[in-house]
Amino acid sequence: MVQNTKKDILEAAIHLFNTKGFNGTSIRDIASKAKVNVSNISYYFQSKEGLLEHCFTTYFEKYLQLIEEGYHDGIKEGALGQLRQITEKILHFHCEHIQLTRLVLREISIDSQMVREVMSTYILKERYYLKSVFEEGIRAKEFHSFSVNYMLIQYKSLITMPFLNSYYLTEVLQVIPNESYFVKRYLKDMNGWFEGVICRKPSRSLSVANN
User: Residue 166 contacts by C-beta under 8 Å, 6 or more apart in sequence?
Assistant: First the structure.
């Protein structure tokens, strides 16, 4: 019962933060949607800010765990293998938790004290793993000698855009990023970007995977 109450509060908060915005959502709004007493929110999360911080923590702990797993799972296949493993894991995670993903990606685009605290911990760890992959790819001559920072910008744009710009995808492009076909199709296109832009020569394993 306790776990269900906490889960209901989180789900209500994520939905309302996405639809009404963080500032446009009150504790009473969350309590009403979750069908709980306001005191339950104070007990579990202290405040609305505590709820948002919990959303950040929930998202980034799993997100970074998947990046680390992909980094190690693909290490025998070189930098390209690592990048493919990381990308697949992230895309599946984003699709399976699309509301949480949209909320976090939107909120970290806003400069705030909470975001700066996140940037100093979780985001730096993400940067460490991705930067290591790109640097190893360049060192091993798998990747072109592009600026690592600009490679990170392009990669992050590709991996976040479908989930940050949900209205554009669903209403303009009529693409639904939380449906199963999306991951398969988008992975194929991202693999094409790896192959055609950052890799020095086509990877046989990647070509086979794309067919």
Answer: 98, 102, 177
Lowest average pLDDT, out of 105-114, 141-150, 182-191, goes to: 105-114
Structural domains of the chain, with CATH: 1-46 (1.10.10.60), 53-210 (1.10.357.10)
Burial letters 157-175, b for 16+ CB under 10 A, else e:
ebbbebbbbbeebeeeeeb
Angle at 19 between CA 13 and CA 190, to 5 degrees: 100
Residue 3 confidence (pLDDT)? 61
What is the pTM (predicted TM-score) of this model? 0.86
Q: Are 159 and 178 a contacting pair, CB within 8 Å?
A: no
The answer to whether the CB of 158 falls within 8 A of the CB of 189 is no
Query: How open is the CA angle 80-83-88, to the nearest 5 degrees?
Result: 125
